[in-house]
Amino acid sequence: PVVPSGGVVARIIDEVYELCRADTSGTLADYIPELSAVQPDSFGICLATADGSIYGSGDLDAAFTIQSISKPFTYALALADRGVAEVARHIDVEPTGEPFNEISLDPQTQRPRNPMINAGAIAAAGLIKGTDAADRFARIRRSYSRFAGRELTMNDAVYASEARTGFRNRAIGYLLRGANIIDVDPDEAVDRYFRQCSIDVTCRDLAVMAATLANNGVNPLTRERALTGPLVEQVLSVMTTCGMYDAAGDWVTTVGLPAKSGVGGGILAVLPGQIGIAVYSPRLDAHGSSVRGVKACRELSSRLGLHFLHVT
Ligand code: GLN
């Protein structure tokens, strides 16, 4: 793909914003009170280029929790800590075609099918190195902050609710411990997953995080390296096949970009070497992805010609 000039990008973002704003379908996540208490009409689209230009429309600086968009970033840190081969012994890279919270372990190896579903994400959280639980989470938070180019913080109220209600995730943690996929205390691994899901971000932050992946792991604003090039490739590969859960095939055909969504209402997408895109709008579809987010990404991809298989 050849991304159009800045002026065209800015105009198309405004058009897509106006078009998608009319869509008020979908429902807020309601498994904890904090997620159903957000402004349902919030909507932001942000695009950051691999050389650091930022374009956007709408609510670019409203905070919301990163939720499952944390998964590729913790997987990235696990890869950096343990190496690709060791992580692969614990977490596979095969798409499931199943929902995000599926209790999906390979019957032969007991490995979670991939790091983008909860089972794989909890396993990745269990592989993070550090001196103690606090240090291991601090390393995750600092790693996300390098991608975002600013100090990110955890939302205490969301974390408390996640921890109070997350029985299914605890069950997954205990299965992983029973199968020796994680060798730490399963409660610690699951608690770390709840904490990482509760990190607050803005639409602008997610666009910069995406642009850091697009820029081969170097944050285009701070010039700080957040991840090595080969690991960026590994993470984007898994996002391509598994990032949108049971909608992955539809996403690849209609948008054609590695991406990740979260039930906080964010979606992040990457065109390697070129741009990062983020959309925030909290009303979700049946897969747990932002309705306007999916629609805006489809429109941006087709109007800007971003599909990674698109030949100009
Ligand atoms: N905290 C949520 C969970 O684990 C995140 C899910 C998501 O964003 N898809 O259920």
TrEMBL record:
Residues engaged in binding substrate: 68, 118, 162, 169, 193, 245, 263
Assembly and oligomerization: Homotetramer.
Family label: Belongs to the glutaminase family.
Protein name, as recorded: Glutaminase
Residues shown, of full length: 57 to 368 of 668
